[in-house]
Amino acid sequence: MAHAALLPYPERMSTSLEPLLSVENLHTSFFTQNGTVKAVQETSFAVQRGEILGIVGESGCGKTTAGLSVMGLVPYPGRVVGGRINFRGTDLDEMDEDERRILRGEAMAMIFQDPQAALNPLITIGDQIAEIFNAHGRIDGDEVREETLVALASLGLPDPEYVMQSYPWEMSGGMCQRVMLAMMLVLEPELLIADEPTSALDVTLQAEILERLMGLAKESGTGIILITHDMGVIARAADKVLVMYGGRIVESADTVTLFNNPKHPYTAGLLNAMPRLDRDTKPLPGIPGAPPDLLDAPDECPFLPRCNKATVVCRTNPMPPLVTMDEGHTLACYNPLTEPRVG
Question: For the CA atoms of the chain, what is the radius of gyration?
């Protein structure tokens, strides 16, 4: 998604002092036969009601695992091994699995990255949405059918009656994405985690999905965690941004500040690799190398082998701590960038 000028969205900023979701010092690991994969380490963030928090980074940086940790859905052999997750003033670690299951769907929901894989290919769309209503005992009978039609129509799906009778494999990826969004919104959750909701969609459908999420935050006060690798999506929809790399947060700020004045070399690399309307058509600069292997996580800064700003300090010291540079702008880097971004 091309980006020309980033403007603040003051009408979408939350005014509540107590966060809807608070995550403190989260650690999530996968215990494999080859060793322990430290997928998320020392990760803390908060989401206010009506706020969209973007989590951005390359594949394998830990952003999806952070979302699954909040939902209590980390797959085997992974588990949350440290930290606290507080939702609406309640520590989720104190809930048993039945209580967490009830919470999921009614108050918390997640849109998964691959909608066609997340939907059951053997059950019609209408029956899958009906299962959600039935599981939470909200409505039944003809009312379920009526509410299902309303949910599908609200996402702009043509001929909701036909969609209800269809199977996931009969629909396009874009239609499945809209169905997943409809399924997650039927119970009006207070927190929505959207994992790559615009991945592999054309730009028109991307814009529609993002507008729907932004409207949900503004009109319903839903707190949203938007997980993506696309800085253009962040620019369009997010109020605040966490940049993750190597399972850790390396920079966080409000979206306008991050885009105009990135401090971490990795953040600057992501921004430079983003297409822009005011840039010529020469090849975009990439970030050389590959993300670190979290099975053997380095003690020093995980971005060190790929960083063109690294110095002796970076090579002889452990991972830098996350510190506050300015109000609301945090950074984990020994040599932060000093010049504001041009354009």
Answer: 21
Closest C-alpha among 203, 218, 165 to residue 52: 218
Residues in the chain: 343
CB 289, CB 269: distance < 8 Å: no
CA distance 341 to 252: 16
Q: Tell me the β-bridge partners of 249.
A: 244
Tokens for 134, please give them: 């039935």
d(CA 343, CA 336): 19
Helix (H, G, I), strand (E, B) or coil at 40: strand
For the chain, how long is the longest CA-to-CA vector? 69
- Bridge partners of 329, per DSSP, are 326
Question: What is the per-residue burial (b if ≥16 Cβ within 10 Å, else e) of 311-326?
Answer: eeebeeeebbebeeee
> Three-state secondary structure along 243-306?
EEECCEEEEEEEHHHHHHCCCCHHHHHHHHCCCECCCCCCCCCCCCCCCCCHHHCCCCCCCHHH
Cα(134)–Cα(39) distance, integer angstroms: 35
Residue type, 63: K
Q: What is the pLDDT of residue 141?
A: 67
**What is the layout of strands, in order, in the sheet containing 52-56?**
108-111, 191-195, 223-228, 52-56, 240-245, 248-254, 329-331, 323-326
* Prediction pTM value: 0.89
3-state helix/strand/coil string of 100-161: HHHHHHHCEEEECCCHHHHCCCCCCHHHHHHHHHHHHCCCCCHHHHHHHHHHHHHCCCCCHH
pLDDT in tens, 174-223: 888 888 888 888 778 999 999 998 876 778 888 888 998 999 899 999 99
Nearest to 167 by CA among 119, 113, 129: 119
* Residue corresponding to tokens 């600069």: 285
Looking at residues 37-59, what average pLDDT do you find?
95
- pLDDT at residue 43 tops 90: yes
